[in-house]
Structures are given as structure tokens and as C-alpha cells.
Specification:
Elements: E1 4-6, H1 29-34, H2 40-69, H3 92-95, H4 107-111, H5 113-119, E2 128-130, E3 132-133, E4 151-156, E5 169-174, H6 182-185, E6 197-205, H7 209-233, H8 247-264, H9 267-271, E7 274-275, E8 277-283, E9 286-292, E10 296-303, H10 320-325, E11 330-334, H11 345-353, E12 357-359, E13 369-374, E14 379-383, E15 389-390, H12 392-395, E16 404-409, H13 410-417, E17 422-428, H14 438-450, H15 458-479, E18 492-499
Parallel strand pairs: 3-4
Antiparallel strand pairs: 1-14, 2-5, 4-18, 5-6, 6-7, 6-8, 7-15, 8-9, 9-16, 10-11, 10-17, 12-13, 13-14, 17-18
């Protein structure tokens, strides 16, 4: 994310027989060793001791190698956090190996989740999926952890050269997202936690933005699960799941997790970077939509045409606009989050009360920035958001990690939209919307989810559908990129997930 801008722009020896003594300075080292036979035994002892030490050292190395190969939890940088299971989210590379964990919300997947958690060493709250680079996915064999008929989680690296050519976005999907151990889940009666999920986007910025985003993506779900788990055991059975009594508890846990992660970031990284944090959490029939920063999150209802879907008439070579214009159904966007920008009255008041400066472009208020004299960059630097994780230099002037949280009652929403309509959720970095409106992206996603039929044998139907979906996603990303290749393009990342009651 291009969110910060620069403002106003490494001894003599004896023999048994008489002999002529040689001068000492004519004896070399080997001769002296040979003329000292009475010292040979100690030397042999030293050699034996040295060999023993070497063998012992090799044995230790072997033992350490064996221990290192045994899977174990990652260490936490935060000094005040200890998760009950001693586990946390897996790293980016290891999570991508979970090809078996197709979080497509199918009933068979839910039933197998506990076995997968045990076999793949997932945290107790679920197996996380992280975004795959779209260019690394082959059209003929689409990986099921990246895209399915129920979810999409992808990313596309920007064309930036500085501060480093790395993708600073992080996206995660944990579905199902379990809050408690299996034994306690059995006490919940009709409540089925296998429908719960957590999806999030963490858009990094500045030199250490990718590191901060990775830390937040890993730590916030872990800490949130731990806090909710603790809260469940301190309340009457099931109260946290009823959609009303437990809402304050869940909201407080989300806020605390954000604050703790912000404080736990290593100071050198927090000084040199930050990230947004947008999440949608489902617990029972309630969605918790939390937002810190200026990333995007919203819900979409899709209603199919009254006379039913017609056959797919979009050719393989159709241009990008066709995907939107050929949407046969209709979409409505619900609960789009408010972006935390410095010019907003409540944000502006807080920042200025802490002595912060705000620059608001007269013709483009959404480009407002919080200005500080950066000791890292040694000049004035503007931050394009009023809330974030990290950004320690801006914390002093009122930039906070506290999220806004909105709750959505799914029972009420499904009653409102009707039984024929479908629902899906989106979280995305702002790079997806730099050149396109939310409505454009939403129509593409609706077309991808609900109007991309599979063809061929039943055995190959899912793979064929995934291949078509990936093709359409690539078109969407192309359409969301600048017209010219040499123009700046931000990282583009998003998670989209269908929701059912």
C-alpha cells in the first residue's frame, strides 16, 4: 500500500649416549618433538580426548537436527500473551501446503475438520488459508485452497520498486473458525460452530509494512480466539452465541486483540511501518465487521433473474467489461465500512487534540494525511489514514489501532433479502478499488460466484468451474489495474466468501 508520502515532496635435551650438543637455534619444531620421547604419552592422551570431544559434538548436532525437524509452535514476540494451546497461525509458506484443506464450507469438509487439524498441526481454532499470488496459479489445475465455488482468496503484487519490491498485503481466511475445544463445542446444543469463520485483510505500508501486516495477520486471530475462549468459560453455557448477550464481550475481545498486537510489534518495526486491519468474524448468527484503517469490507446480496439463468454466452476472448455487463442477476451492497481518513470530523478532532497536523487537499479530501516530522525518514511524512496497526511515530499524535465494529444479524438479513437471494462477504485492500468503483468489483464477483457454470463430467466439474472462476478473477484484476503498465499499481488482495444460515 502506498500510504505514506513525503510532505511538500560494518631446552636442551639429553641422550643416553654422548653426543655433540647442537645449537638450539638450528633445531626445527619436528626435531624437538622427536627429541622429547618422554612427552609422547600425554600427546596421545590429548588426541584421544580430542577425538572423544569431536564424537560428542557430532552426536549433539545429530540430536539437535532431529529435534529441529519436530514441528513445534512459533515463538510470540508479545511478552504478555500465552495462548492455551501453545499454537499460532502457520507461516505463509507452510499454510499454502494445506491443499487438502478446501474450506468450501461443504458438510463433508466440516466433518473432517478435526482430523485435518490434528494431522496438519493447525491451531485449535482452525486451519488458516492465506492469499496465493494469482500469477502463480495455473489455469488448468487451479489450487482448491485459492479458489472454489464458495471462496476466493488471492493477491497480486504491485509494481513498486521502493522501498522494496515485495507484496505488503496479507489476507487470511479461517473457515471454520473454532473458538473452543471439541469437548466444550458438544455442549452448545443446536449451535453449530462449523459455520463460523474469520476473514481478514492487512494492508501494509512503509519500509516494514509487510512485516507488520504478517504479524497482525498471525497474532490477531490467535489472541482473539484465546480471549473469546476464556470469556466462554466465564459465562453461562452458550450465552456468547445467542447474538445479543455476548456482543459486547466479542467486541471488547476484538478491540483488546488489536491494542495488544499494536503494542507487541517490535519497536524497530513499528517505527518503520504499519498496516490496516479489516476483518469479518462470524459467531453463530451474528457477523462482527471490524475496521482499522482504509481497507474495504462489505456484504453483498445477489438475486438471480426471475426467469432463471441463461446459458453462459461469454467467450474465452471476451473483454473485461463483458463480465460486468453480462451479469444476469442483480446485486445490492450492504454494510460497507467507513474508511478511517484524517479529514473526518471525529478523526480530525482526536488527532488535533494530540497535537497532530492534518493536510487536506482542497479538491480531494479522501487524500488527507496526518503529518509528522519522521525521525526515521528525517523529514515530514504523511500517513493516509487516521487509524492503523503499528506506525509508532503517528501514535503520539492520535493515530490509534482501535477498530470500529458493526454487528449484523444474519437471521434478519436473510429474512429481508428473501429465500432466493444469496449472500457473500468481501474484504479487500484499497488497491482493488484504485481504478474501479465498488459496484464494478462487486458485479464481477457475483458473476464469478453465481453465474459461472461448470461443464464436463461430474468428476471434472469442480475443477472446470474453478478454472473459469480463475480466468474471470484475472480479468477483474486486469480491469482494476492502471491502463498503462508503467503507471503505479498498488498491491491487490481480497477474500470473498459465500454465507449461508
Amino acid at each position: 500500500m502506498r500510504q505514506r508520502s513525503y510532505h511538500a515532496d560494518k631446552n636442551d635435551c639429553f641422550h643416553d649416549e654422548p653426543h655433540k650438543q647442537e645449537p638450539r637455534n638450528t633445531l626445527n619444531t619436528n626435531q624437538r618433538k622427536q627429541r622429547l620421547p618422554h612427552l609422547n604419552h600425554p600427546r596421545k592422551d590429548r588426541v584421544i580426548l580430542l577425538k572423544f570431544a569431536l564424537c560428542f559434538f557430532l552426536v549433539c548436532l545429530t540430536v539437535l537436527a532431529i529435534l529441529h525437524s519436530i514441528p513445534r509452535p512459533r515463538a510470540h514476540d508479545g511478552h504478555h500473551f500465552m495462548i492455551r494451546t501453545g499454537q499460532t497461525l502457520k507461516s505463509h509458506s507452510s499454510v499454502n501446503d494445506f491443499d487438502a484443506n478446501v474450506h468450501s464450507i461443504d458438510q463433508s469438509d466440516k466433518n473432517d475438520h478435526r482430523m485435518k487439524t490434528q494431522s496438519n498441526k493447525c491451531p485449535s481454532y482452525g486451519c488458516p488459508l492465506v492469499a496465493s499470488e494469482v500469477l502463480h496459479l495455473a489455469d488448468d489445475t487451479v489450487r482448491s485452497d485459492a479458489i472454489s465455488q464458495h471462496h476466493i482468496i488471492l493477491t497480486h503484487k504491485s509494481n513498486r520498486k521502493l522501498p522494496a519490491p515485495v507484496n505488503q498485503d496479507r489476507a487470511v481466511l479461517i473457515s471454520p473458525f473454532f473458538l473452543v475445544e471439541e469437548e466444550f463445542r458438544q455442549l452448545q446444543g443446536s449451535y453449530d460452530p462449523r459455520s463460523d469463520f474469520l476473514m481478514g485483510i492487512f494492508d501494509g505500508h512503509d519500509n516494514s509494512g509487510d512485516i507488520v501486516a504478517e504479524f497482525a495477520m498471525t497474532e490477531i486471530p490467535a489472541r482473539l480466539s484465546y480471549k473469546l475462549n476464556s470469556a466462554i468459560f466465564s459465562q453461562p453455557t452458550g450465552s456468547i452465541f445467542n447474538g445479543t448477550v455476548g456482543q459486547d464481550t466479542v467486541k471488547n475481545a476484538i478491540v483488546q486483540a488489536h491494542n495488544e498486537v499494536d503494542e507487541a510489534i517490535p519497536s524497530d518495526q513499528a517505527m518503520a511501518g504499519g498496516c490496516t486491519a479489516n476483518m469479518i468474524l462470524r459467531i453463530g448468527s451474528t457477523l462482527y465487521m471490524s475496521n482499522t484503517g482504509d481497507s474495504y469490507s462489505y456484504l453483498v446480496t445477489y438475486t438471480p433473474p426471475i426467469d432463471g439463468l441463461k446459458s453462459d454466452n461469454i467467450s474465452e476472448s471476451s473483454n473485461t467489461a463483458d463480465l460486468q455487463s453480462h451479469l444476469q442477476g442483480s446485486v445490492i451492497i450492504h454494510h460497507e465500512n467507513i474508511k478511517h481518513k484524517p479529514h473526518l470530523p471525529i478523526e480530525k478532532l482526536r488527532i488535533e487534540s494530540h497535537g497532530g497536523r492534518i493536510h487536506v487537499p482542497p479538491t480531494h479530501p479522501m487524500g488527507s494525511r496526518v503529518i509528522v516530522k519522521s525521525s526515521v525518514h528525517n523529514e515530514d511524512v504523511g500517513l493516509a489514514m487516521s487509524r492503523s496497526i503499528g506506525d509508532a511515530e503517528w501514535t503520539k499524535v492520535g493515530v490509534i489501532p482501535v477498530p470500529d465494529i458493526e454487528t449484523v444479524n444474519l437471521n434478519e438479513l436473510f429474512t429481508e433479502i428473501g429465500e432466493k437471494s444469496k449472500l457473500f462477504a468481501v474484504v479487500a485492500s484499497d488497491g482493488l478499488f484504485d481504478n474501479r468503483k465498488v459496484e464494478f468489483v462487486t458485479k464481477h464477483l457475483a458473476r464469478i460466484f453465481f453465474e459461472t457454470p461448470a461443464s464436463g463430467d461430474e468428476k471434472d466439474a469442480k475443477q472446470d468451474q474453478a478454472r473459469k472462476m480463475l480466468e474471470h478473477v484475472k480479468r477483474l484484476i486486469t480491469a482494476s489495474s492502471p491502463l498503462k503498465a508503467d503507471w503505479y499499481r498498488d498491491d491487490i488482495s481480497f477474500v470473498a466468501l459465500t454465507i449461508e444460515l
